[in-house]
């Protein structure tokens, strides 16, 4: 692997690692912030909001049930011996129509009759499992109670009954009255709130049995003690009493954060929970986006770096092999081209010559017209020579005003080339401030076994001989 490849690989690794590390750190910070916001703010706020909503939905039924239990008509009618059943039926029906409750009822402690707004529903009995609630409540001494049970007057629809004790002035039990709310109505409250806050919400009694849930099939059927994950913390929820608790549990769906609050009006516990996966979805999406953008940015940067490295490497290689002023090959590259010419001569028998060139009067040009004009003169020589040679020929600048040409040609072709260069230099450099340029040339033909130094020495000797004789071969 080349140094350039290693450099690009190292840079790519650093960029990718940096973007990945930054993205992961950002995700970790976002995750921590999201979970902190969920457990310290979002869940408690949702819990308290739902608590208020539930209380608001139950306060009126509780208040109406309380008014029914303290209504003098109901007490006096009961104490008179329940003689006109139509009176209590109209009483219950009036409340039903006014408030739209699912059920309104009164159960007499004396006759055990269950009065409904549609008439006498039944006579309650200790032997009837549906009537256990009445005897349990009557013996509890509580002022009121909430109970989820099947409404026998409405095809056994699950109903939340708000039961209030009816007593005479001496505190003796006259019966139990109240209203019934269809459990579906409470489920609708939970469903609406759950859709708004995107969190699971349900109510459980002190035993852990679900009493209200968006899925009514779970009501009175599922105990949180028996559920995977939450079963491990169910006791902590139910033992908290009036204190709210913030907990987490893990099951096959991942980690779930929950908060709970006791509702004394219902003697139930409100549970609000949310799976961390739902909360962290945005953070994960942001991580994927960041990684995608980082990968794209890294790729673009790497491509730019590769192009830049290739450009500057090519530029450095060019400068290492070429003269910066004239663009000619420099002396460092001469050995490579010489070996190539020798190889072609050996394989294909192609002759080649070395033509040494020196600009006449160059010191005088510099002294009289300045170094800028001297530089222009050198560039003009290079351009004119390149315009008159073939692509396989190579022009070198040795420094100062000295040039060398390696050309594939015979001795006769070399002489013709020198003559062509003489004409071109004379005609095409006449516009320079220093006037037409002249170049002294010396030609040496390569012979098998000849070294580069020998060939250059012969070409230089021929060129200096021309200068000594005051001639101009070009």
From TrEMBL:
InterPro entries in UniProt: Diguanylate_Cyclase, GGDEF_dom, Nucleotide_cyclase, Rev_trsase/Diguanyl_cyclase, Sensor-like_sf
Keyword vocabulary terms for this entry: Membrane, Signal, Transmembrane, Transmembrane helix
Keyword flag NADP: no
GO molecular function: diguanylate cyclase activity
Signal sequence extent: 1-20
Positions of the GGDEF domain: 350-474
Main enzyme class: transferase
Reactions it catalyzes: 2 GTP = 3',3'-c-di-GMP + 2 diphosphate
Enzyme Commission numbers on file: 2.7.7.65
Transmembrane segments annotated in the record for this chain: 287-312
PANTHER family for the chain: DIGUANYLATE CYCLASE DGCM-RELATED, REGULATORY COMPONENTS OF SENSORY TRANSDUCTION SYSTEM
Name listed for the protein in its UniProt record: diguanylate cyclase
Native organism: Megalodesulfovibrio gigas (strain ATCC 19364 / DSM 1382 / NCIMB 9332 / VKM B-1759) (Desulfovibrio gigas)
């Amino acid at each position: 692997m080349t140094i350039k490849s290693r450099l690009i690989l190292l840079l790519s690794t650093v960029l990718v690692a940096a973007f990945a590390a930054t993205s992961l750190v950002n995700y970790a910070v976002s995750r921590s912030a999201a979970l902190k916001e969920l457990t310290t703010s979002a869940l408690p706020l949702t819990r308290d909001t739902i608590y208020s909503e539930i209380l608001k939905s139950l306060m009126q039924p509780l208040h109406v049930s309380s008014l029914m239990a303290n209504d003098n008509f109901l007490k006096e009618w009961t104490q008179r011996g329940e003689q006109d059943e139509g009176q209590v039926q109209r009483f219950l029906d009036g409340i039903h129509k006014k408030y739209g409750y699912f059920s309104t009822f009164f159960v007499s402690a004396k006759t055990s009759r269950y009065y409904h707004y549609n008439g006498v529903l039944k006579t309650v009995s200790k032997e009837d499992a549906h009537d256990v609630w009445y005897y349990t409540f009557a013996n509890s001494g509580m002022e009121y109670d909430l109970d989820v049970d099947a409404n026998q007057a409405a095809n056994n629809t699950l109903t939340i009954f708000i039961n209030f004790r009816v007593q005479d002035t001496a505190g003796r039990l006259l019966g139990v009255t109240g209203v019934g709310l269809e459990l579906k109505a409470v489920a609708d409250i939970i469903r609406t709130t759950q859709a708004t806050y995107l969190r699971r919400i349900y109510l459980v009694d002190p035993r852990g049995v679900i009493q209200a849930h968006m899925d009514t099939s779970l009501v009175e059927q599922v105990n949180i003690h028996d559920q995977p994950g939450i079963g491990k913390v169910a006791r902590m929820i139910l033992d908290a009493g009036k204190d709210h608790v913030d907990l987490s549990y893990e099951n096959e769906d991942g980690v779930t954060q929950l908060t709970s609050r006791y509702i004394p009006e219902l003697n139930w516990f409100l549970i609000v929970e949310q799976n961390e996966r739902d909360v962290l979805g945005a953070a994960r999406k942001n991580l994927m986006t960041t990684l995608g953008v980082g990968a794209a940015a890294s790729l673009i940067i790497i491509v730019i770096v590769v192009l830049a490295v290739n450009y500057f490497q090519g530029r450095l290689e060019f400068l290492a092999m070429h003269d910066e002023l004239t663009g000619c090959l420099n002396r460092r590259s001469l050995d490579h081209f010489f070996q190539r010419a020798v190889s072609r001569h050996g394989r294909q028998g192609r002759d080649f010559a070395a033509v040494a060139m020196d600009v006449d009067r160059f010191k005088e040009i510099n002294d009289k017209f300045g170094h800028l004009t001297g530089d222009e003169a050198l560039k003009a020589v290079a351009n004119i020579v390149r315009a008159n040679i073939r692509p396989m020929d190579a022009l070198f600048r040795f420094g100062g005003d000295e040039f060398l040409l390696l050309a594939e040609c015979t001795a006769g072709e070399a002489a013709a080339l020198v003559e062509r260069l003489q004409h071109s230099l004379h005609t095409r450099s006449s516009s320079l401030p220093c006037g037409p340029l002249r170049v002294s040339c010396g030609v040496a033909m390569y012979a098998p076994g000849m070294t580069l130094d020998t060939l250059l020495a012969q070409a230089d000797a021929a060129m200096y001989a021309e200068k000594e004789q005051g001639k101009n071969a070009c």
